[in-house]
Specification:
53% of the residues lie in helices and 9% in strands. The chain is mostly helical. The strands form four sheets. It has a three-stranded antiparallel beta sheet. A three-stranded antiparallel beta sheet has the order 6-8-7. Helix 4 packs across helix 7 and helix 12 crosses helix 13. It is elongated and about 105 Å long. The N and C termini lie far apart (91 Å).
């Protein structure tokens, strides 16, 4: 492992011509951010394909020396990968190698570590795809192990009711206890929401993309009706959204979302939590149909389990003679036309 990383890189690149050095330095971010083939091509006035050729030629040119001087680093990195099952997500792996190296304060060290591995040609690197993040691996068997594990979890998620997956903490804990659990950080098909619930990124409960889904997740986790201003605050406080959401936008979206019920002035709850849509009169009618004739106190108590209303508001609706009638024992029943 090189004692002075920057001097080692300078010596390693000394066999390259100025254009090759520039391509390698910018492509691997040795002095700053990593640049794309197109960005480098625009700078040098050449095609992106020509940049790729120069990059490959340069890496081939320095590979032998890189392998000779990076033996210790490669061995330690390989051993670390083996302990992780042969596969590790790029960002996590590079940070872990950085700790193993104990290199001190070196600028752009993470980029330089990646460059060392690319220059030596090992471990192997899989670039980011639409379905996976970039990762490092030891060979075909490790890659197949990754695919088998992620497909197994994916099939379980697809063939099981999503609420059972999300609400089953034992399932989440079981996955977390598996040695291969970190494989799931590579696939873009899985995620954990702000509350630690595991599931597919296509599920709005796991990866809410719009205000409606973020509000749904906030109210569901709170477990009780909330004012729309509270919902807006909770979305940001619970890190469901990285940025504060507009209060009026939240209110407007809740009105249009059939999953929510207006249960009081500005107060919203979820239907799935037992709250019902409809006017106060309709709620009372539903309760009497379910329970049979009720005393006024029973009506008030039952309605307030589904709505947040003043007692007088409920009693006033109960006095509607076209809808309800008072029986001889003081109970109220539905008025049959």
């Amino acid at each position: 492992m090189p004692k002075n990383i920057d001097n080692f890189i300078e010596n390693l690149l000394s066999v390259l011509n100025p254009k090759q050095k520039k391509v390698i330095s910018r492509r691997y971010g040795l002095q700053g951010k990593r640049e794309t083939l197109q960005e480098i091509g625009n700078l040098l006035g050449i095609t992106r394909e020509r940049v790729r050729q120069i990059e490959n030629q340069s890496i081939t040119k320095i590979r032998k020396e890189a392998r000779e001087h990076l033996v210790d680093l490669i061995q330690k990195a390989t051993k670390h990968l083996e302990s992780a099952g042969g596969v590790r997500e790029d960002t996590l792996f590079v940070k872990e190698v950085q700790r193993i190296m104990s290199a001190g304060n070196v600028e752009n060290l993470e980029n330089k570590i990646r460059f060392f591995f690319f220059a030596a040609g090992e471990p192997l690197y899989a670039r980011e795809t639409p379905s996976t993040r970039s990762y490092w691996y030891l060979g075909g068997k490790a890659k197949a192990k990754l695919a088998d594990f992620t497909n197994q979890i994916l099939n379980t998620c697809k063939n099981t009711d999503r609420q059972k997956i999300i609400e089953n903490t034992e399932f989440t804990e079981k996955i977390g206890s598996l040695a291969e659990a970190h494989f799931l950080t590579i696939s873009k098909k899985f995620a954990w929401n702000a509350f630690g619930d595991f599931g597919l990124t296509s599920w709005p409960e796991i990866n809410p993309k719009n205000v409606r889904d973020k509000a749904y997740l906030a109210v569901k986790k709170c477990g009780k009706p909330l004012h729309f201003e509270e919902i807006a605050s909770l979305i940001h406080e619970q890190k469901i959204s990285a940025r504060p959401v507009n209060i009026q936008t939240v209110h407007n979206e809740l009105i249009k979302d059939s999953r929510f019920v207006l249960v009081g002035r500005g107060m919203y709850a979820l239907k799935e939590q037992g709250y019902e849509a409809g006017t106060v009169k309709e709620v009372i009618s539903t309760l009497i149909k379910q329970k049979g004739p009720l005393h006024s106190k029973q009506v008030v108590e039952l309605v307030n389990q589904k709505r947040f209303l003043k007692e007088n508001t409920i009693l006033l609706n109960l006095q509607n003679r076209k809808s309800f009638k008072r029986l001889g024992d003081g109970k109220y029943d539905i008025h049959q036309a």
